[in-house]
Amino acid sequence: MMKRREFITLIGGAAAAWPLAARAQQPALPVIGFMSGRSADAGSVVAAAFRQGLNEAGFVADRNVTIEYRWAADQLDRLPAIAAELVSRPVSVFAVFGTVPAKAARVASTTIPIVFLTADDPVTVGLVANLNRPGGNVTGVSFVSATLGTKRLELLRALAPKTDVVAVLLDPHSTESQNQSRDVQEAAGALGVRVVVLNAGTASAIDTAFATLAQQRVGALLVSGSPTFGSLHKQLVALAARHALPTMYATREYSGAGGLISYGASILDSYRQAAIYVGRILKGDRPSDLPVLRPTKFELVINLKIAKTLSLDIPDKLLALADEVIE
Fold first, then answer.
1. Judgement on whether residues 320 and 187 belong to the same structural domain of the protein
2. pLDDT per position as a tens digit, 28-69
3. Is 21 within a domain?
4. 215 to each of 80, 199, 260, 304, how far by Cα in Å?
5. Is the pLDDT confidence value at 6 over 60?
6. Is there a single domain that holds both residue 106 and residue 155?
7. Other CB atoms within 10 A of residue 317 CB
8. pTM to 2 decimals?
9. Can you give the residue range of the structural domain that contains 235?
């Protein structure tokens, strides 16, 4: 007959094992493969916006979903290996930010759902077949803003009304950048402005472009939207300040870093939108049934401190239009 002390020990041991067994039976959390060409430091703010969107979709990191962050730190040639590593993890869904990361994920898997955020036209660059019915395993958010070129040129001219020569800085590797150039040049005639187009796709090429601007006696600069320019925004802002050049940028990120003025889609809201799509896919929606989203929130940001440095008087009408004025 089993002694009372032995029985209690047996029951106690079994009870201690039950929580372990219960934990072992719990399904593993779904894994999001978050992949960006930026560095972790540069991407901290947008990553927070992404998590906010996930929360709105009902997912909280480390509670009911796991996020595996991978940052290429502007070394885009690392992205194929990063994508392959995440596939082997494996991940439940990719969240990829930028056209190059999106293409790397698409090559790595034709079955794992992919949600992208890109500044390019996703049809033109081959991410999806159709904006309304993407097909396959890919969908996402496109904040392509080529058609905003006219508006940006008008706003820049309002800041510098005496300027008759405006330079447009383009990234030759960005489809958005090239489309925006056509939009700006078409609008320039009506505004009585001559446009000087400069191409620069690297940090050293940007330095060279600004040296050329000084020789061309350009009165203002419009920096087109580009993932590369976004990664190098501090360099662009510093060079514009050094050359005392009134400059229009594509996103708030530049104005927050000391740029004069920016107008474009809210990047933070676009990250939030992408995260909501990730949440929908985790709940069972198919990427092929989710149309590519376009921006719903646009921001005009003016940095008054920089305007004073450049001795610019900001028209009251322009200040009234601004979503944010940095003082």
1. yes
2. 899 999 999 888 988 899 999 999 999 999 999 999 999 999
3. no
4. 41, 16, 22, 28
5. no
6. no
7. 8
8. 0.80
9. 146-265+298-326
